[in-house]
Design a protein that fits this description.
binds manganese (II) ion; alpha/beta
């Protein structure tokens, strides 16, 4: 049986918009994608899920970490913020396996009490690559003994990078990877709680993250 994995999605005009690459990666690795629209009440969904993916997207409202909007803040979608912060809270309370991708990784850090750098500036190398998404553009170092190392190997690894925000003050999760400019590129916690700043759905060498989530979801009980 494929475990049911929720994938949150945003709204683009008249349509809900889920990442096709995330849905396909999850399906191909053995999960059952269950798309959750931004308008939904997160609590109503929790009992149907065995795992959760919070995918990439725009910027979280900085009010969630008690900051005013920086000039460089991008598009904020309040309804999606509300859904995803609620889903993350529900998953953490239950110890449900969760994978945060890019924006999803940032939301995990904020849900764990941390904050974000609203717009990466001087002191960081390019994190919003101009190359196609399937092209790994920068290196990361992986923490030895981490869940991430177990899933992808010890590294270093080249990953893609499509973000202009980053993890600032760390919440209660543990860093599991860094880029060479010192930015945290992955965080993890109890059970299968993992956030990665890159987009694994575009990289064959990162499919182990989806397999790990699916494996954890199969064995998970509320
Ligand atoms: Mn990056």
């Amino acid at each position: 049986m494929r475990p049911i994995i929720g994938i949150s999605c945003g709204r683009a005009g008249e349509h809900y918009q889920a990442s096709a690459k995330v849905v396909e990666a999850l399906w191909e690795q053995g999960g059952l994608p269950f798309i959750i629209p931004a308008a939904a009440d997160p609590e109503e969904y929790m009992e149907y899920l065995q795992g959760l993916i919070i995918p990439g997207g725009g910027d979280l409202d900085p009010a969630y970490y008690d900051q005013d909007p920086h000039r460089g803040l991008g598009v904020v979608e309040p309804e999606r913020d509300r859904l995803e912060m609620g889903l993350i809270k529900g998953a953490i309370e239950r110890g449900m396996p969760i994978l945060g991708i890019c924006r999803g990784c940032q939301l995990l850090n904020v849900a764990a009490g941390g904050d974000l750098i609203q717009d990466l500036g001087d002191g960081y190398h390019q994190h919003r690559q101009q190359a196609p998404r399937a092209h790994p553009s920068h290196w990361i170092k992986i923490a030895s003994g981490s869940l991430l190392a177990k899933l992808l190997g010890p590294g270093p690894l080249r990953v893609n990078s499509c973000h202009h925000q980053g993890i600032g003050r760390l919440g209660s999760l543990t860093p599991a990877a860094w880029s060479n400019d010192g930015l945290i590129e992955a965080i993890e916690g109890e059970g299968f709680t993992l956030g990665v700043q890159w987009h694994p759905e575009w990289l064959p060498e990162s499919m182990g993250l989806f397999r790990g989530l699916i494996q954890a979801a199969k064995g998970w009980k509320a």
